[in-house]
Amino acid sequence: MDRPRRGDFLELRQLVEKQLRGQVADQVRAQLARFGDPAAKHERRKKRAAAAMWFFIFLGLLLGVVGAVIATGTAGFEATLSGAVIGVFALGSLALGAKSGGRLRRLNHAPVPTAKPSLPPARSAAREPMERLQDAERVLADLLRQLSSPRSTVPADSVEQARASGAEAASALREVAAELQAVERARDMAPAADRHALSEGVLRMKEQLEEGLEGYGALIAAAGRLVAANSSGGPDNYALTDATDRLHGLAVALREIFPDR
Description:
mainly alpha; 0% strand; membrane
């Protein structure tokens, strides 16, 4: 029976260390993402406001009772003055409690903020396309907001269809990016003989991301032309509708590649 070679042990050790570094880094990123999540921050603000409200209310009531006992239980001007001073502090504490309660009420009625989708790790082939997608989403949102203004002559249903198709395409692209990262993790763990096929799969999905971003860019271009044409009074609404339909078709095609999701 052949004895394992030293080079095999070194290769296995490097593979394990690489995977452990990746797992630790992913765990750290996940913890940071949870801590920085806007919804989690919103919930922490609510808890702090509630804690401050009850603290100041309790303190105000306690000071009020102490002040009343001192003022009424002991005769003399000094006792009355001490009770009055403590009573002022009690009123101040209750006012702070009411202020914290008002802040808690506003937080309870405020919409819970949503978190931005997290980006893939820097080492992933999906990182750069997803960064471009985030930039493209901001640009499209700004253009569609301007097309929704009262000055715009673009039909509102065309704008809403473009917005819905943009969101649908972005969701489909993020699903492809998630699949790409899963294949990358499998490639890093696979035996050397299987890595080439997995690397080719990564390249194919990267091409799909590029195709999706190109379609997304076409929708942005159509919306930008409409914004520019609004000032001259002659926008081509068909261009936005055509780009919207093509982007919707692209999003459907991307999802059909992975029908099990």
